[in-house]
Q: What sequence folds into this?
C-alpha cells in the first residue's frame, strides 16, 4: 500500500506548517500566513550553481596566488599576497585580525567551494557522493561566515588611505577577489538546497534498488 500522507514544511519566517506540493518548473510556493517564499522549483539550479562554482574555484586560486597589491616607494616596489598579509598582521601582533581574515577570506570560501564541488559535480555525472548529508550541513553552517565582500571593502578603504603617502598598485588578486565576490553571490542565489536534497536522495534510492 502506498503512503499518501502529504509532507509538511515549516515556514522559516513564521513557523506555520503547510503541505509540500508539487510545483511547475520556474514556480515557487509562498507561505499562506506571511507570504515568505518557502521553496522554488528551479530545474536548472544544479547546472547553474556548478558553473558558478567551477568559475569561482579558478578565480579563487588566482586571488590567493597573485599579489593583492603592491606599494612603490622611491622606485622600490613591494608586493604582497593575501596570505602574506595574514602573516604580516600576525607578526605585528594583530593576531585576532589576522585570524579573522584567514578564516573569512581564505578558509571559509575554500570550504564552501570544495563542498559545492564535492556535492554537485558527482550529481551532474549521475553519481551520489559519500556522506553528502555532512557536506549539506557544512554549507548551512558556514553560510553566515562568508564575508569576502567585507574584505574587499576593507582593502579598498586601506588603498585610499595609503595613496596619500605611497603609490599603491592594485594587483591581479584584488580584481580576482572582486570577481569572486560576484561569483559566490551568484552561486548562493542559484543554489537550491531543497532541489539538491531531492536529487541526491532520488539517485541514492535508484542505486539501492538496482
A:
Amino acid at each position: 500500500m502506498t503512503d499518501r500522507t502529504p509532507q509538511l514544511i515549516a515556514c522559516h519566517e513564521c513557523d506555520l506548517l503547510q503541505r509540500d506540493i508539487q510545483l511547475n518548473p520556474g514556480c515557487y510556493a509562498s507561505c499562506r500566513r506571511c507570504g515568505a517564499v518557502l521553496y522554488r522549483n528551479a530545474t536548472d539550479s544544479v547546472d547553474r550553481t556548478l558553473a558558478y562554482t567551477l568559475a569561482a574555484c579558478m578565480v579563487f586560486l588566482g586571488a590567493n596566488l597573485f599579489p593583492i597589491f603592491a606599494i612603490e616607494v622611491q622606485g622600490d616596489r613591494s608586493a604582497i599576497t593575501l596570505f602574506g598579509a595574514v602573516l604580516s598582521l600576525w607578526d605585528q601582533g594583530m593576531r585576532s585580525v589576522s585570524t579573522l581574515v584567514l578564516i573569512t577570506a581564505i578558509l571559509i570560501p575554500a570550504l564552501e567551494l570544495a563542498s559545492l564541488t564535492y556535492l554537485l559535480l558527482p550529481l551532474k555525472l549521475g553519481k551520489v557522493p559519500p556522506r553528502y548529508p555532512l557536506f549539506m550541513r557544512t554549507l548551512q553552517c558556514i553560510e553566515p561566515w562568508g564575508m569576502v565582500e567585507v574584505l574587499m571593502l576593507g582593502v579598498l578603504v586601506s588603498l585610499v588611505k595609503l595613496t596619500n603617502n605611497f603609490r599603491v598598485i592594485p594587483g591581479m588578486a584584488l580584481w580576482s577577489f572582486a570577481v569572486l565576490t560576484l561569483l559566490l553571490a551568484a552561486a548562493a542565489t542559484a543554489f537550491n538546497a531543497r532541489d539538491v536534497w531531492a536529487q541526491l536522495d532520488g539517485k541514492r534510492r535508484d542505486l539501492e534498488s538496482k
About this structure: Helices lie at 45-65, 82-91, 95-124, 132-142, 148-162, 172-190, 193-209. The chain has two domains: 1-41, 44-209. The mean pLDDT is 78. The longest strand covers residues 69-73.
